[in-house]
Amino acid sequence: MILAATAAPAWAAADTDTTVGEVVVTAQKREQNLQDVPAAVSAFGESQLQAQSVGSLTDLSAKSPNVVLAPVGAYPYASAFYIRGLGFADVESTFEPSVGVELNGVYLARNSGALQDMFDIASVEILRGPQGTLYGRNTIGGVVSVKTKRAAPGQAFGGQVQGTLGDNGRQEARVGLDLPVHETVGLRLSGLYKSYKGYNHNLTTGRREGDNEVLSGRATLSFEPNDQFDATLVADFDHEKGSGASFRNASLPGQVYYNLSPDTGSPVFSAAQRAKASDVRNVYGNTPVVAKINTWGLALTMNYDTALGTLTSVTGYREFEDTVQSDYDGTAVNFFLALREQTHQQFSQELRLGGEVGKVTYVVGAYYLNQSYDITNTQSGLIYSGARVAQVASQENAGWALFGQFDWAATEKLTLTAGGRYSFEEKEFRNRPLFFPASRTYSSDWDNFSPKLGANYKFSDDLMAYASWSKGFRSGGYNGRAASYTSAGPYGAETVDSIEAGLKIDLLERRVRLNGAVFSATYKNMQTGAQGLTSSGVYESIVTNAGKAKIDGAEAEAILALGGGWRVNANLAYLDARFDKNFTDLTSDGINNPTNNADLPMIYAPEWSGSFGVTYETETPYGQLTANANAVYTDDMYTSGGVINRTSNVQVRPANTLYDATLSLSNDAGWRIAVWGKNLTDEDVINNTFGLGALGELRIYQPPRTYGVEFGYKF
Question: Which coarse location class describes where this protein primarily resides (predicted)?
Fold first, then answer.
């Protein structure tokens, strides 16, 4: 049944030190061997995630080709995911993501809350390139799909517990329990508690920043009364609170913030002050930064086998609320402060039928999404002459889609694919800008048809070639931080035409696996954003359809089973991303500029990236010893847009190589102890730098060297 694939680990056949095991994925909404899927997909099973001590999706960044998985700098629980140069790095709920995140088959409509601590995870699949046919809106860059563990019906009592101690007061506890209920019912309960004191030191307040406390839980109930029907209900919650992001002042001479704190290197501060400020873990903001999120959700998946195929229903409901207080000058001056208080709800329903008729394998279905949000964004400081003012906004959004994909086995070796998805959605946006006495309501709708054509040819059981052409769709919308009635929008939908060709190869009796792809994508009506001050001195973020871009690239992944307990995994990616046209609203007045700024770089699009990892396993008198080490390289890349990128590298994250390693010992009695470290060489890596127009530049750094010791028991 389809559900078995959604709940089981990605690896269906165990790897050995002399063969690469079979990987079962559901990238095309049905169970398939990864080597039979004519698309660029990376899969990480439970054993891989554990061996690499993966605690968050960001730990997988660049471990899949042309994939950048990072937090939104100012909002650590929100995802800034980029695949093949396309992504989204904002938390405003009117802006649409480019990379879809799916949890247990339910699409997460907002990137806020999408970046949570991972625990009790069965598998992660990363689909690269537009996925419009089967996944729909806002998957123009790709999809990240996470599946959690479940207990099979009738499963006996068992589970696992794990505790972690580490750097900066790190304390973590994880538990997963399978509870016997009935021969037709399975129940798994899991939970996580995490406490962390943080690694930044605020020299203005004397406080430590970057602290975080997490309490998460999940209950998974599976029901299988017969061979024809099964259902799984997942209920989860996540509560997180901490100090949020610490901003460093990276402003340049001539910008307002340049002389407000010593971390800019401004000569108005003494040499001793500037030397102390050179430590990137020292920050100077005088306002307590706060980030809190509460989210919960339900996901119900049901499968029913019929004469026509398997009928699948996926129902999802989620809510989240967040409170974020930020010091948007990063200095001891009360120049620009913001407090965001937001709530969001979403309901989704997917119904699909998948099966085979003769030589045709098919998936057809319908999808519905309804979501809404409300936000109050209160700003204050010298920027507004000491006044405290609030923007109030809300939006309701409904979307419908019909989709289908048909694979025809024209011969024993050749399969032809055709599919498409029709999408329609409507939005109603209400906004009361800062200093405006009343709200204004806007409404609009968009529709799109995204087709797909493809072919794959099996030269042998161990060699497949494929080629495809597809289109993708990113919904239009409104500017949630519009500072006037006229700059609210709407902006139009973004589309992509993508061509991809690839090879999937197993060599030397499956001791070597080599998968590769080349691609070319053209983006039209590209949604581009700019941040800055309006002519009236109000800060806002504006998105307009200002661009046309071309992205070409190549990528390769390899796994080698060397024998003697040794395994190697590696990937290499090349990306050439550039604007053909770029009329971004660089003045943030809601009007496209008349000047073509196509020479400006695209963000989060490193030219070269890759990873190299080694795993060694051996039996000792005390149990199985496993050592894993990884090196991840990312080339120079811009982390924000704007004209400043023409004259300065302030928004560049310099090229870096990060190293992580895990050493574990486990035995047949169920005990496991592991020591792990990340960013072992303690590199100062910029997460992102973003501009505030004439005010200045603010910067957030990724964590320094972190480490921990895990103690676990499986029973």
Answer: membrane
Q: What is the dihedral of CA 541, 545, 550, 553, to 10 degrees?
A: 50
CA distance 515 to 706: 32
DSSP string, 452-501: EEEEEEEEETTEEEEEEEEEEEE--B--TT-SSSGGG--B--EEEEEEEE
H/E stretch holding 221: strand 212-223
d(CA 97, CA 115): 13
CA–CA dist 490, 660 (Å, integer): 44
Cβ atoms of 698 and 330 within 8 Å: the answer is yes
pLDDT at position 505 is 97
Distance of alpha carbon 253 from alpha carbon 33, whole angstroms: 56
Listing DSSP states for 152-173 in one string gives PTTPPSEEEEEEEEEGGG-EEE
Predicted TM-score of the model (pTM) = 0.92
Q: In whole angstroms, how far apart are CA 151 and each of 41, 185, 320, 393?
A: 26, 9, 27, 42
| Spatial separation of the C-alpha atoms in residues 111 and 125, rounded to whole Å | 17
Give yes or no for a contact between 533 and 694, defined as CB atoms under 8 angstroms apart: yes
Using alpha carbons only, give the angle 127, 75, 658 rounded to the nearest 5 degrees: 60
Three-class SS of residue 216? Answer: strand
- Which helix (DSSP H) or strand (DSSP E) does residue 275 occupy? helix 271-277
pLDDT for residue 115: 80
pLDDT value, residue 138: 73
Rounded-to-integer distance, Cα 305 and Cα 311, Å: 6
The model's confidence at residue 528, banded by pLDDT at 50, 70 and 90, is: confident
Q: How many residues does the chain have?
A: 715
| Average pLDDT across the chain, whole number | 92
Per-residue confidence (pLDDT) for residue 592, from 0 to 100: 60
**279-282: long-range contacts, CB 8 A cutoff, minimum separation 24:** 280/248, 280/684, 280/701, 281/199, 281/200, 281/201, 281/701, 281/704, 282/200, 282/201, 282/202, 282/203
Category of 64 on φ-ψ map: left (φ > 0), alpha (ψ -120 to 50) or beta: beta
Pick 89 or 637 by higher pLDDT: 637
Averaged pLDDT for residues 525-529 = 86
Give per-residue pLDDT as tens, 264-279.
Answer: 999 999 999 999 999 9
Taking 50 as the threshold, does the pLDDT of residue 2 lie above it?
Answer: no
pLDDT per position as a tens digit, 322-345: 999 999 999 999 999 999 999 999
* Beta-sheet strands, E only, within 306-413: 310-327, 337-357, 360-380, 388-409
Radius of gyration of the chain, Cα coordinates, nearest whole angstrom: 25
Q: What is the three-class DSSP state of 273?
A: helix
